[in-house]
């Protein structure tokens, strides 16, 4: 099932987790992810890395938004747009997946802005 990334209200209820088999590491506040299937490395900046860490806490997309609104001085509408784009990018690249039913927190496991081989 592919989520509707253009409808933040529906997206906010969903839980994602890092996809199985990918390797990731914190690099001084940023995050590097190796897609084990393609061999491509992806990088997340510090905000993306923070979102990734919140995935590890089994938070849904709406809870992630709420935490970021508390931690950063950002417009809520712009934040929702940015989060939706990030999750769509991560999902499309196979770096995150919905939890078993997508509606409750799942197991901890790997985000995407830049890539290299």
Question: Can you lay out the helices and strands and say which pair or pack?
Answer:
Blueprint lengths: L7 H4 L4 E3 L4 E5 L2 E5 L6 E4 L1 H10 L5 H11 L4 H17 L3 E3 L15 E3 L1
Antiparallel strand pairs: 1-5, 2-3, 3-4, 4-6
Distance between the termini: 29 Å
Strand order of the largest sheet: 2-3-4-6
- What would you call the shape? globular
Q: Give the number of domains.
A: 1
Tell me the structural class. Answer: alpha+beta
Radius of gyration over C-alpha positions, nearest whole angstrom: 13 Å
Task: Give the count of helical stretches.
Answer: 4
* Uncertain stretches of 5 or more adjacent residues: 107-117
Portion in beta strands: 15-25%
Largest sheet: 4 strands, antiparallel
H-E string: HEEEEHHHEE
Number of strands: 6
Primary descriptors:
globular, 117 residues, alpha+beta, two-stranded antiparallel ribbon, four-stranded antiparallel β-sheet, disordered C terminus
Write a brief structural summary.
With about 120 residues, the chain is an alpha+beta fold. It has one domain.
């Amino acid at each position: 099932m592919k989520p509707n990334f253009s409808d933040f209200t529906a997206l906010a209820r969903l839980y994602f987790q890092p996809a199985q088999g990918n390797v990731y590491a914190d690099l001084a506040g940023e995050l590097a992810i190796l897609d084990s299937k393609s061999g491509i490395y992806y990088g997340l900046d510090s905000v993306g890395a923070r979102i990734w860490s919140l995935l590890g806490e089994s938070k849904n997309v709406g809870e992630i938004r709420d935490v970021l609104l508390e931690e950063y001085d950002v417009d809520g509408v712009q934040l929702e747009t940015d989060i939706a784009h990030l999750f769509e990018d991560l999902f499309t690249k196979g770096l995150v997946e919905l939890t078993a039913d997508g509606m409750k927190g799942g197991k901890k496991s790997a985000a995407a802005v830049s890539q290299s081989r």
